[in-house]
Sequence to fold (524 residues):
Amino acid sequence: MTETKRYPMAEAVRAAYRAGEEDEALEPLVLVDAAGRPIGRIGDGDYVIFYDIRGEREVELTSAFVAPDFPHFPRPPIRVHFATMIEYASGLPVEVAFPPLREIENTMSAVVSAHGLRQVKIAESEKAIHVRYFLNGKREQPFPGESHVVIPSPEVRNYATTPEMSAAQVAEAAVQALDDPEAALVVVNFANVDVVGHIEDKEAILRAVAEVDARVGQVVTAARDRGVTAIVTADHGTVEKWLYPEGTVDTGHTDSPVPFILIEPGLRQVALRTGGELADVAPTVLHLLGLPRPAEMTGRSLLPEEVSGGGRRVLLVIADGWGARDDPWGNLILEAETPVMDRLQREWPTTRLAASGPAVGMPEGTVGNSEAGHLHIGAGRRVLSDRVRIDQAIADGSFFDNPAFRWAMRGAKRDGTNLHLLGIVSFYSSHGSVAHLKALMEMARREGVPRVYIHGMLGRRGERPESGARYIAEIEEEAERLGVGTVASVIGRFWSLDREENWDRIEKTYRWLVDGRGRAVPSG
Fold:
């Protein structure tokens, strides 16, 4: 592929790089005609396909378009027909292309609740949805006896300025939860390593790792003082593989395993099973609590069968993004000051768990992510990811007969309105894939949709520097090849994929899509 100025949006992204911007917080770009008028805005009667997966971030922007009652900012009186790749939240008035197969039943939290035990889940707001929703098998309501403590994350644009985030307050809340003798299970997530690890700032990452190390020590010490069994693990890796082989920074997730450490004086000499994966965490927790493992849990306890359970309370610490890798090359976990984790792994039973690829329901060779990680920790079984389902549908051709996509494309063609394809433009992102966008473009060609506009979101997570421009050029070239589609606008995912009700960011994205507010990019 030859990238030239005949691909105007790709060249505009490259110009933004030269001006000091980067993919994640890229200011909105809008294609304009010769008179300076925005091209391809979302208007009354138009159809939109939001092709992202996951959904915990996508739901805010979707709600801005379709929620009947929306108090966060004023909207023009337009009606937009909306389809989403997966279900972002139940009850949204949208067509869903790949609805949930079924609710994940008998998760770790469900079993704890069914036996009348109390559980407390603690995280700062950046990761609250993972311990509240994904850990519970995508259940939106807490189980009976379950409570959540959400500590607000710092209100900053760049967490590199505050790499400690709110870990101190999270640790304090965990200690308070441990003080309650009725809390049989306490789950705590420390977000720093994952969140700060996506930023190209080595010193900030080293501080984030050191902060999590110290806070893990604080809560594990509190657990031991109170006679509570502690487990320390992670959902996926991030900064233990921070460099590509040639030395370029990799800010994405990794395919590394994660540590699993058991801190229980009565089990100090136990040998944990090797070859495990994240789905084995829930059966291990239930084993320690003395609760039966339901038949749906195909994961296995990491403890020997002869270890008796019951009578224990359990603290489960998830050091988000803390991968395990022995190679020192680009390994910021090894480079950081981590006396607590080093000591715990020396003195207590430890093993490593697979946290990527098929072990977490993802395609072979793919990296892990927080959604899949928490889902598998809580579910105790492998759960086929939405990405795999979609990829299989593209491969067998059923994707191109999907009723939700047909509804949107044939509706736009019938009504003489526009079709908009909205979402992440990335190969590695856990939120979506260029392959899914290209499949939608091919389907629009087959359906003969006359006007198709593409609105791309960029975010360098697991991508090489300045990869966004390359992906946008790839989509512009694909549109040229197919004779379908125009890349009408581009924005950084910082603005469009929020999950903490920063409605100013969502309004900025909405105005970009509807009003064409952004830096003008001439189409000629």
